[in-house]
Amino acid sequence: MIEHDVRVSPSKASLKREDQLAWKIAGVAADKVAVPRDVAAMIINRIIDNAAVAIASLNRRAVVSARDMALARPNKSGASIFGVPSGKRVFPEWAAWANGVAVRELDMHDTFLAADYSHPADTIPPILAVAQTKEKSGRDLIRGIATGYEIQIDLTRAICLHEHKIDHIAHLCPAQAAGIGTLLGLKQDIIYQAVQQAVHVSFTTRQSRKGEISSWKAYAPAHAGKLAIEAVDRVMRGEGAPSPIYEGEDSVIAWMLNGPQAHYVVPLPAPGEPKRGIMDSYTKEHSGEYQSQALIDLAFRMREKIGDFDAVEKIVIHTSHHTHTVIGSGANDPQKMDPKASRETLDHSIMYIFAVALQDGTWHHIDSYAPKRAARADTVRLWHKIETTEDPEWTRRYRATDPNELSFGGRVEIFLRDGSKLEDEMAVANAHPLGARPFGRDDYIRKFQVMTDGIITPRESNRFLEAVQELPRLPAGDLHRLNVAAPAGTLEAGKPGIL
């Protein structure tokens, strides 16, 4: 990897494009380096993972609305939509929109956490939609996705958006544009302009993940994917972009991030170096914010020592700054303690999640968030006894660069009314690569089968799983086989809009 210094440059300095971060990102995307076999295998895993969570959410309101919007823009030469037979196609930006919402809705696909946080599998829907539309091969798709992951993860390693209340799609959109550039074999100067456009249009605030969290949490990455496709389309037609998009004196670093004196160091693969970023990401076994994954597993372990949950006086979760301030009591969001809160809010409340996991010993992407479950009196009593606190050591480990120290869990103290105390800790979730049961291909397939059971037919399930595992050998024009269709008559329709 090469570490690139990124600083604000005054307009009068006329910063050369070769010295701009967007140009360097475009260089990585244009590099025709081969994709390693283990990276290709992990890409297949994440396509399976995306399909699992997308199909499980097919009839949730946000997904229904997004699908209806997409179906109103038919294009017989376009891309497929999850749940809809692949013969019925739409414009690629709208397929990316619908599929992106479906993938993100349950908050149960992969994650990468570093200086900022991300769900790098959000890069897949727009890259796949363009690949289907342009009749690319499985190998082309693998190359595009490898780039999308690499750029998303490298930006997340280096540039914190959260501290400036900027939503993480600001890293996602340029990564999606870069991945599409790789997929299509575009030249560096074209990708450069697309990346700059993508950055310019995707900086939004993180109010989408604050207070009463709405369905826009699922729509935000889909919106980025739609913007990325449109950006690439425009620059392929000869249009340009604001430049330099990162370093400009009136651009994002100077006014939205660390300011005119900012200095970032962004790692990117050297020319000819394989794009291995995906191997540093990890998926979710449980439906909820990633920082909850280890704590859910820890709750399962600790519950065996509690005979009576009403005997609990207080629970304190000692964890990282990020966990405390995003999904913990440090967020100062009263909605995180409200039994009537939205599902999107509850999956960002570690107090709620830990209470339910402690009581139930299981976690389900639907049942654990059901309104009746959230309103249960004994759960509310326990939930309201839970608080989080930042522990500097867990913050250090959360930000560690050594993968053996990196952790996203915490230490839990359960104080009982008799004066005794239970204490335990867990650094990473069981499914994490360094966890007790790291996810492999069989686990991804099992997750797909569990989450799609009763929604699609066994025949369709087997067909998709066979096709996706043949991805490196799928010829040009065959990528619609990666779509998954629901049985006729099972997809719901939503409220009418303008179209």
From TrEMBL:
<dbReference type="InterPro" id="IPR045336">
    <property type="entry name" value="MmgE_PrpD_N"/>
</dbReference>
<dbReference type="GO" id="GO:0016829">
    <property type="term" value="F:lyase activity"/>
</dbReference>
<dbReference type="Pfam" id="PF03972">
    <property type="entry name" value="MmgE_PrpD_N"/>
</dbReference>
<feature type="domain" description="MmgE/PrpD N-terminal">
    <location>
        <begin position="20"/>
        <end position="263"/>
    </location>
</feature>
<dbReference type="InterPro" id="IPR036148">
    <property type="entry name" value="MmgE/PrpD_sf"/>
</dbReference>
<protein>
    <submittedName>
        <fullName>2-methylcitrate dehydratase</fullName>
    </submittedName>
</protein>
<dbReference type="InterPro" id="IPR042188">
    <property type="entry name" value="MmgE/PrpD_sf_2"/>
</dbReference>
<comment type="similarity">
    <text>Belongs to the PrpD family.</text>
</comment>
<dbReference type="InterPro" id="IPR005656">
    <property type="entry name" value="MmgE_PrpD"/>
</dbReference>
<feature type="domain" description="MmgE/PrpD C-terminal">
    <location>
        <begin position="286"/>
        <end position="471"/>
    </location>
</feature>
<comment type="subunit">
    <text>Monomer.</text>
</comment>
<dbReference type="InterPro" id="IPR042183">
    <property type="entry name" value="MmgE/PrpD_sf_1"/>
</dbReference>
<dbReference type="InterPro" id="IPR045337">
    <property type="entry name" value="MmgE_PrpD_C"/>
</dbReference>
<dbReference type="Pfam" id="PF19305">
    <property type="entry name" value="MmgE_PrpD_C"/>
</dbReference>
<keyword id="KW-0456">Lyase</keyword>
